[in-house]
Amino acid sequence: MGGEITLGHYLVLSGALFLIGLAGVVLRRSLLVVMMSLELLLNAANLALVAVGRFQGIPDPQVAVFFVITVAAAEAALGLAILVAIFRIKKTTAADQMASLRF
Protein backbone atom coordinates (compact mmCIF):
# COMPACT_ATOMS: atom_id res chain seq x y z
CA MET A 1 0.00 0.00 0.00
CA GLY A 2 1.77 3.14 -1.23
CA GLY A 3 1.61 6.09 1.11
CA GLU A 4 3.35 8.40 -1.30
CA ILE A 5 1.63 11.61 -2.31
CA THR A 6 1.64 11.99 -6.07
CA LEU A 7 0.99 14.85 -8.44
CA GLY A 8 -2.53 13.53 -8.94
CA HIS A 9 -3.31 14.04 -5.26
CA TYR A 10 -2.26 17.67 -5.45
CA LEU A 11 -4.22 18.26 -8.64
CA VAL A 12 -7.37 16.68 -7.18
CA LEU A 13 -7.06 18.91 -4.10
CA SER A 14 -6.48 21.92 -6.32
CA GLY A 15 -9.51 21.04 -8.44
CA ALA A 16 -11.69 20.64 -5.34
CA LEU A 17 -10.56 24.02 -4.01
CA PHE A 18 -11.22 25.57 -7.41
CA LEU A 19 -14.75 24.12 -7.54
CA ILE A 20 -15.53 25.37 -4.02
CA GLY A 21 -14.29 28.83 -4.98
CA LEU A 22 -16.25 28.79 -8.22
CA ALA A 23 -19.40 27.77 -6.37
CA GLY A 24 -18.87 30.63 -3.94
CA VAL A 25 -18.53 33.14 -6.77
CA VAL A 26 -21.57 31.88 -8.64
CA LEU A 27 -23.96 31.10 -5.78
CA ARG A 28 -23.31 33.72 -3.12
CA ARG A 29 -24.85 37.18 -2.93
CA SER A 30 -22.50 38.88 -0.47
CA LEU A 31 -19.61 40.65 -2.15
CA LEU A 32 -17.33 39.81 0.77
CA VAL A 33 -17.93 36.07 0.27
CA VAL A 34 -17.42 36.51 -3.49
CA MET A 35 -14.05 38.17 -2.84
CA MET A 36 -13.02 35.34 -0.50
CA SER A 37 -14.07 32.82 -3.15
CA LEU A 38 -11.91 34.61 -5.73
CA GLU A 39 -8.96 34.28 -3.38
CA LEU A 40 -9.72 30.57 -3.09
CA LEU A 41 -9.70 30.29 -6.89
CA LEU A 42 -6.28 31.96 -7.03
CA ASN A 43 -4.91 29.72 -4.28
CA ALA A 44 -6.15 26.62 -6.10
CA ALA A 45 -4.32 27.72 -9.24
CA ASN A 46 -1.21 28.46 -7.17
CA LEU A 47 -1.31 25.00 -5.60
CA ALA A 48 -1.52 23.39 -9.04
CA LEU A 49 1.36 25.49 -10.36
CA VAL A 50 3.64 24.71 -7.43
CA ALA A 51 2.79 21.01 -7.50
CA VAL A 52 3.49 20.68 -11.22
CA GLY A 53 6.72 22.63 -10.84
CA ARG A 54 7.81 20.45 -7.92
CA PHE A 55 7.14 17.18 -9.68
CA GLN A 56 8.71 18.38 -12.94
CA GLY A 57 11.74 19.73 -11.12
CA ILE A 58 11.29 23.25 -12.48
CA PRO A 59 11.47 26.22 -10.06
CA ASP A 60 9.90 28.71 -12.53
CA PRO A 61 6.24 28.17 -11.46
CA GLN A 62 7.18 29.04 -7.88
CA VAL A 63 8.38 32.45 -9.05
CA ALA A 64 5.10 32.96 -10.94
CA VAL A 65 3.15 31.97 -7.81
CA PHE A 66 5.05 34.60 -5.82
CA PHE A 67 3.83 37.28 -8.22
CA VAL A 68 0.27 35.90 -8.24
CA ILE A 69 0.17 36.02 -4.43
CA THR A 70 1.46 39.60 -4.50
CA VAL A 71 -1.20 40.67 -6.99
CA ALA A 72 -3.89 38.78 -5.06
CA ALA A 73 -2.96 40.60 -1.85
CA ALA A 74 -3.16 43.95 -3.61
CA GLU A 75 -6.47 42.97 -5.20
CA ALA A 76 -7.90 41.95 -1.82
CA ALA A 77 -6.85 45.21 -0.17
CA LEU A 78 -8.19 47.36 -2.99
CA GLY A 79 -11.39 45.33 -3.30
CA LEU A 80 -12.04 45.56 0.42
CA ALA A 81 -11.48 49.32 0.37
CA ILE A 82 -13.96 49.70 -2.49
CA LEU A 83 -16.43 47.42 -0.70
CA VAL A 84 -16.22 49.50 2.48
CA ALA A 85 -16.75 52.71 0.49
CA ILE A 86 -19.81 51.25 -1.24
CA PHE A 87 -21.15 49.88 2.06
CA ARG A 88 -20.99 53.34 3.63
CA ILE A 89 -23.22 54.70 0.89
CA LYS A 90 -25.58 51.82 0.11
CA LYS A 91 -25.63 50.16 3.57
CA THR A 92 -25.46 46.67 2.05
CA THR A 93 -22.93 44.22 0.63
CA ALA A 94 -25.45 42.25 -1.42
CA ALA A 95 -24.40 41.89 -5.03
CA ASP A 96 -28.03 42.29 -6.17
CA GLN A 97 -28.10 45.83 -4.81
CA MET A 98 -24.90 46.77 -6.66
CA ALA A 99 -26.38 46.59 -10.15
CA SER A 100 -26.10 50.33 -10.50
CA LEU A 101 -23.07 52.36 -9.53
CA ARG A 102 -25.17 55.49 -9.16
CA PHE A 103 -25.41 56.88 -5.67
Short description, anyone?
The chain has 103 residues and is mainly α. It has helices spanning 7-27, 31-56, 60-90. The longest helix has 31 residues, at 60-90.
Descriptive notes:
This protein has a single domain, classed as Helix Hairpins (Orthogonal Bundle). It is 76% helix and 0% strand. The chain has 3 helices and no strands. The longest helix is centred in the last third of the chain and has 31 residues, at 60-90. The protein is elongated. The N and C termini lie far apart (63 Å).
What is Rg?
17 Å
What structural class do the secondary elements suggest? mainly alpha
Helix count, DSSP H or I runs of 4 or more residues: 3
Mean pLDDT: 88
Q: Quick one: biggest sheet?
A: none
* Helix proportion: over 70%
Tags for this model:
elongated, 0% strand, 76% helix, mainly alpha, 3 helices, 103 residues
Fold topology:
Elements: H1 7-27, H2 31-56, H3 60-90
